[in-house]
Design a protein that fits this description.
The protein is built from 7 helices and 7 strands. It is of the alpha/beta class. The chain has a single domain, classed as HUPs (Rossmann fold, 3-Layer(aba) Sandwich), CATH 3.40.50.620. Helix 1 links the parallel strand 1 and strand 2. The longest helix has 15 residues.
Length: 231
């Protein structure tokens, strides 16, 4: 995995973003400071195999993301999964994104993808489609609450995941730039106690979700009557 040249980092932040809220945005903002990537892509899921179908359409969730990050040149939205029919898989999306950056950049500038994932999702990685191939496509950046025990030091990982992760853990973000893929870094981020499920339930009950997500996103939800009545 080691290499003699350094890599520019591209953050890939996946999720349903149904809807996007301040918890998502705060993690993304903090990770740009920790990782110092060239760019960070939000990758809204299409039809994830291991999760319920999102309540809002892919087009609506993409629009809400664009609305939430407007004016931030560090962020952009990659909507490839929402345009794909059938179940969507992270391994296929990362293969496509990696190929895109390999052909896009000129000269000696080389890119390493950093796949941002929560600790709870990382523990379930062996249930993902072709999950072992992910280590040959990207680094993993695990969002972890400050002060909590790093996931690498817990007994919560399944044995097959422990084996796959052996010798991949690193302690500083700068080490991610030394390899094209295959490393795991736990980032201390502020995990706000906000969830998309809670926001949907609040809206469905007729209550206000103000200050849990950006006002323009909330206005979009109101205009399009999203999540009302449990939708």
């Amino acid at each position: 995995m080691a290499d003699t040249k350094t890599y520019a980092l591209i953050g890939i932040y996946g999720g349903t973003f149904d809807p996007v809220h301040y918890g998502h945005l705060r993690i993304a903002e903090e990770l740009t400071e920790i990782l110092r990537p060239d760019h960070l892509l939000f990758l809204p899921a299409g039809h994830p195999r291991l999760r319920d179908t999102p309540a809002a359409t892919g087009a609506c969730r993409v629009t809400m993301l664009h609305t939430a990050i407007r004016g931030n040149s560090m962020f952009s939205v990659d909507d490839r999964e929402t345009r794909r029919s059938g179940e969507t898989y992270s391994v296929e999306s990362l293969q496509e994104i990696r190929q895109k950056y390999q052909t896009k950049h000129e000269g000696n500038k080389r890119v390493a993808l950093c796949f941002i994932i929560g600790a709870d999702a990382f523990i379930k990685l062996p249930r993902w489609y072709r999950w072992r191939e992910l280590f040959e496509l990207c680094h993993f950046v695990i969002a972890n609450r400050p002060g909590s025990v790093p996931i690498a030091n817990t007994s919560s990982l399944p044995d097959e995941l422990k084996d796959a992760c052996r010798d991949r853990w690193i302690t500083t973000a700068d080490e991610l730039k030394n390899a094209p893929f295959g490393l795991i870094f736990t980032a201390p981020t502020t995990l706000l106690d906000i969830s998309s499920t809670r926001i949907r339930n609040i809206i469905a009950s007729g209550k206000s979700a103000r200050y849990l997500l950006p006002e323009p996103v909330l206005n979009y939800i109101d205009r399009h009557d999203l999540y009302a009545g449990g939708k």
